[in-house]
Amino acid sequence: MELHTLSAELSVAPQILPEDMVRIRAAGFQSIICNRPDGEAGDQPLFAEIERAAQALGLRTYYLPAVSGKVTDEQGQLFGQLMAELPKPVLAYCRTGMRSTTMWALAEARHKSLPEIVAVAQRAGYDMKGVVRRIINQGRTPLDDVEVAHAVVIIGGGAAGIATASSLLARDPELDIAIIDPADVHYYQPGWTLVGGGVFDAATTAHTMAATIPRGVNWIKAAVAAFEPERNALILDGCRVVKYQQLVVCPGLKLDWHAIEGLSDTLGRNGVTSNYLYHLAPYTWKLVNELGKGRAIFTQPPMPIKCAGAPQKAMYLSADQWKRSGALNTIDIEFCSAGVALFGVADYVPALMEYVKAYGIELHFGNTLVRVNGPAKIATFRHIGANGKEELIDRPFDILHVVPPQVPPDFIRVSPLADAAGWVDVDPATLRHKTWPNIYALGDVANTPNAKTAAAARKQAPVVAHNLLAAIGKRNSSAQYDGYGSCPLTVERGKIVLAEFTYGGKLAPSFPRWFIDGTRPSRLAWLLKERILPPLYWKGMLKGREWLAKPELADL
């Protein structure tokens, strides 16, 4: 836990955790202000978790969330009011502390000189020069005050962003590249299903961002607030400006926990869990091991979501553990999906149905989770029948594994890069933006109709790298992405149905059928998932080694 002092009454910090509350209280703090919206990242505890831990120790709490880089004058004014009213000293936090410091600067602009604000923030480790320029310009960020410029700027240091940077460097080691990402940790998120199934330890899925970003790539540790594509410029939090020649957009998506009424208040307790959060995947495994009888419900929201098979993977691994412990016959398992089919590619459904029947799973399609009452252990679903009539169905549970609805990040949704649904609007083959020819997008944020998986990003990154270099005259051919995605469906510990497909649900196996038949459960596929894919991810994909991922090329 890092604390940065702005005054005797206020300190700011990057994201804090519920277990930090004892230290925060011991340090003398009386109040906590949260300036970070829920759902920005998979390792982020919800504010309700922070609030419960804080209030248990007598700390006052207040939720004043701001979209990164979008702190308003009104929020700065409200922050000042809170500082006047709350017991002191106060600790304010967000992802990095920048939003909290920005609110402080806007509030203090009425009382302190601008040079003093800059100096105090600088001593605390935050650059407020861009915010000061905004104050001077009455809320506008002047784009001619450019602090940083790079040939290629990549937004996002996740799987797609790191892989694209490495693929670019593999083709042109001298290329000037910067990655913009505020996170300190890079996660192998496909491993969280196995954490929730008791196979992996959570810590093995996390590496520091500093160690993950390729050598020679500049790391701008910040969040993007807005796009100015007609000026080839980005505005970062703190109102800083970065210019680019070519832009790659891959910040992932947002987990919308608040779309389900009551969920944020009970997530992580009362038997409610999700493998989509780093700190809750171990809780899933704990719940599974403790349940000897009762009802377990696994949910799936409307598409698109990342790793569309993950809701089922959690269910199958849990059922397998109950089978091994002898509890399967005393546990009712239900799968409640907003979709109309078990899996989107029909060829894989027969194998999955064999496990559904073997585990005694009850399927409910067209069921969307809309409300959770944690203390009463009741989950409410909206169901639309064949006649189009809507009804609400209450289902009691002992374990509820929730997959939240997933939406574009806020700064993408409101940008000129977005389509009508909020996703970045790109050509599905070249991954180039349909309006801005020097902008590309890949990974979860793109509006391509493929499965949102790390395997898709592995195939997309070389395509973007090649086509970007072609656009600046360093290649004389073009690359095409065929929509490849992969979903290793863990149907039991030791066996996987390896789903691989391209646009339109066309099967696209990577191996001969005699070696791994993806439509059938396979021990070799499990070996691939457990032993081979993690090092392939860290040492192959993220290092620019395009094993089984080199794109097909065509002359321009």
Task: Note down, in words, how this protein is organized.
Its cofactor is FAD. Keywords: FAD, Flavoprotein, Oxidoreductase, Quinone, Transit peptide. By secondary structure, this protein is an alpha/beta fold. It has three domains: 133 residues, Protein-Tyrosine Phosphatase, Chain A (Alpha-Beta Complex), CATH 3.90.190; 181 residues, FAD/NAD(P)-binding domain (3-Layer(bba) Sandwich); 151 residues, FAD/NAD(P)-binding domain, CATH 3.50.50. Helices cover 29% and strands 23% of the residues. The strands form eight sheets. Strands 6, 7, 10, 11, 12, 13 and 24 form a seven-stranded mixed beta sheet that branches. Helix 7 links the parallel strand 6 and strand 7. Helix 3 packs across helix 4 and helix 7 crosses helix 15. It is globular and about 70 Å long. The chain starts with a strand and ends with a strand. The mean pLDDT is 94.
Put simply, the count of helices is: 16
How many domains in all? 3
Low-confidence parts lasting 5 or more residues at pLDDT below 50?
none
**Helix/sheet category:** alpha/beta
How many strands appear in the DSSP assignment?
A: 28
Distance between the amino and carboxyl termini = 52 Å
CATH class of the largest domain: Alpha Beta
* Strand percentage: 15-25%
Multimerization state: single chain
CATH architecture assignment of the largest domain: 3-Layer(bba) Sandwich
| The CATH fourth-level homologous superfamily of the largest domain | FAD/NAD(P)-binding domain
- What is the overall shape? globular
Classify the fold: give the CATH topology of the largest domain: FAD/NAD(P)-binding domain
Q: Describe the sheet with the most strands.
A: 7 strands, mixed
- Residue-averaged pLDDT: 94
Percent range of helical residues: 25-40%
**Estimated radius of gyration:** 24 Å
